[in-house]
Model the fold of this input.
Amino acid sequence: MNTLVKNVCLSAAIIGIGAATVQPAFAQSGHPSMNDNKILNIAHRGGSGYAPEHTLASYEVGDEMGGDYIELDLQMTKDGELIAMHDETLDRTTDGSGLVKDYTLKQIKELDAGSWFNDMYPEKAKAEYNGLEVQTLEEVIQHFGKDKHYYIETKSPEVYPGMEEKLLKILDEYNLTRQNGPSSRVIIQSFSEASLQKIHDMDEDIPLVQLIDYKKDATITEAELDHYEEYAVGLGMSFKKIDEEYVEKVRNHDLLIHPYTVLEKEDMKRLIEWGVTGMFTNYPDRLEEVLKEMKKK
Done:
């Protein structure tokens, strides 16, 4: 890992609540997460507690509610376009069915990616959610601009040969990997170490976060942490699997720790007290409220 990039990312997530405060080395960069009293508020699939996930409506809500990063899961269409969607299949979040990889972007654009939310959550339904389109990565970047921050996951990269090359090409075209020098406006995460290693080989200055799927309570060895340090700046895992000792162990290796997906304020408070450096939430407004409440104490 490029040392300068790692230092930037680490200073970007130093917590002044429940942990020792360290002055960030690159505070002059304007990065929203470089305040020493702030942890990363990552709007999970946008403000997906309030709007259909991975739509512009959801991303806008997440941004308005204080999300530091717009989080995108990536799938790839039959004709090689990267789209914002969590599942490999269309069934759950559109009125289509089948595998994303079996459809062209044009075909997927004809689908309704919003009505399912109104049907599932009638108390949160809005007429404007009906008929929302699936968005491409480029469309999201074009909509929000290169001054925003993007937390991107390569989903099922083994299913989509060339996904990493396509992703880096788009990021490069929009100058997102060179913004403010090494302090990229993008973090890339994946459960696939092979995918992250491939990205690291192509551009070692892009901050990477290794996602870990623990079937039981999380445990981690010094050897594993040493290994992750070789290519990643941080780790992500279910907040339900970790404890304070785990967080401390990760932080002692100067790795970021961004648990997912935290919905309730009490869980947010506990994680902050343990020393996490950020978290994914469907309710970024709740996390903002918690941070303000804890700052007053």
